[in-house]
């Protein structure tokens, strides 16, 4: 069936206007109100004055390019392991199996989690463990840059989580507790879209339609447009809007765990990436609570008329399931192993 512009040719897709939270704003009530409005409406907003310098962000992007420009056989030596650390090749991930028939996402990536040594008892758990790093000396400063970003982005995430807590009528430090972001699963993911032109009618996407899994995601992109959101996933046809990159800002979106916590009061919104033929780089930072954290309806989000919509679930269990559903089996890569 030919339905031109069913998913909107580029010219027909509007650019979304999102609220912008200034983390240096001393008027916390204003920040809470802007954030709350964004979370009720679409679950996407910008964050500025977050404390990570533009200069350092440029270094992160430069180092990301330094890695992705390697030949594929070198990158495959750092293929992700069962702990979801390391390189993910093009088509590894299939985010939207209903619409991405027989193919996956036209993006390659690199996962970096919280570093936990192998002899740490937590290394038994999925999502904790040692990272996969390029060999010493081949990419000077690479590991230091990524570790510094990981560390700084977590502080930004915690600052945003405090505003979210207030917006949900919780104590400001609700998400700071040890089982929450005290010992989080936080994953930095470098992404590279190779310049494929997406074609929704053929099921070809940079990243298929999905919502993120955790509490929040911080996203930094270069200046190539590509990210789209769909505020109402049940609308037919679905209406997509671009989210424009803003220099120095993070695009922040809420994940499915926060939707569960908030009993769907706060939205975890469907989004995707369409390639327009230009190469594109982005850096995503996924923030989830600790492995053992029980994600259950918040006391401020339920009432007799509005009982919990989801049963409680452990963060680690939920996350493992979501990764299994969206990533290729590692065994498919055996032929590449040296
Ligand atoms: C993601 C994602 C968007 C982008 O990795 O979950 O939505 O612009 N990325 O790369
Ligand atoms: Ni996403």
UniProtKB/TrEMBL annotation:
It holds the Pfam family DIOX_N. Keywords: Iron, Metal-binding, Oxidoreductase. Coiled coil: none annotated. GO terms for molecular function: dioxygenase activity; metal ion binding. Residues 184-289 form the Fe2OG dioxygenase domain. InterPro entries: DIOX_N, IPNS-like_FE2OG_OXY, IPNS-like_sf, Oxoglu/Fe-dep_dioxygenase_dom. Belongs to the iron/ascorbate-dependent oxidoreductase family. This is 2-oxoglutarate-Fe(II) type oxidoreductase isoform X1. The gene is LOC110410682.
């Amino acid at each position: 069936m030919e339905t031109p512009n069913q998913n909107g040719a580029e010219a027909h897709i509007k650019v979304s206007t999102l609220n912008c939270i200034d983390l240096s704003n001393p008027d916390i009530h204003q920040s809470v109100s802007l954030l709350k409005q964004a979370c009720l409406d679409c679950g996407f907003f910008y964050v500025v004055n977050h404390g990570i310098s533009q200069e350092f962000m440029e270094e992160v992007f430069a180092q990301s390019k330094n890695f992705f420009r390697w030949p594929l056989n070198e990158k495959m030596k750092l293929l992700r392991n069962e702990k979801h650390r390391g390189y993910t090749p093009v088509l590894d991930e299939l985010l939207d199996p209903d619409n991405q028939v027989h193919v996956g996402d036209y993006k390659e990536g690199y996962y970096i989690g919280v570093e936990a040594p192998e002899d740490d008892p937590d290394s038994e758990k999925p999502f904790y463990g040692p990272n996969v790093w390029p060999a010493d000396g081949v990419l000077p400063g690479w590991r230091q840059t990524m570790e510094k970003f990981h560390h700084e982005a977590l502080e930004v995430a915690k600052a945003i989580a405090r505003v979210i807590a207030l917006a949900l009528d919780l104590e400001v430090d609700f998400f700071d507790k040890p089982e929450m972001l005290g010992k989080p699963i936080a994953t930095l993911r470098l992404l590279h879209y190779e310049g494929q032109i997406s074609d929704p009618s053929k099921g070809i996407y940079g990243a298929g339609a999905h919502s993120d899994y955790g509490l929040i995601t911080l996203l930094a992109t270069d200046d190539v447009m590509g990210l789209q959101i769909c505020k109402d996933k049940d609308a037919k046809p679905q209406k997509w809007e671009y989210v424009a990159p803003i220099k120095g800002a993070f695009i922040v979106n809420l994940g499915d765990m926060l939707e569960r916590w908030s009993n769907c009061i706060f939205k975890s919104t469907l989004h995707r990436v369409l390639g327009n033929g230009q190469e594109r780089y982005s850096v995503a930072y996924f923030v989830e609570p600790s492995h053992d954290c029980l994600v259950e309806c918040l006391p401020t989000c339920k009432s007799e008329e509005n009982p919990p919509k989801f049963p409680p679930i452990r963060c680690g269990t939920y996350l493992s399931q979501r990764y299994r559903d969206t990533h290729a089996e590692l065994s498919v890569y055996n032929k590449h192993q040296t």
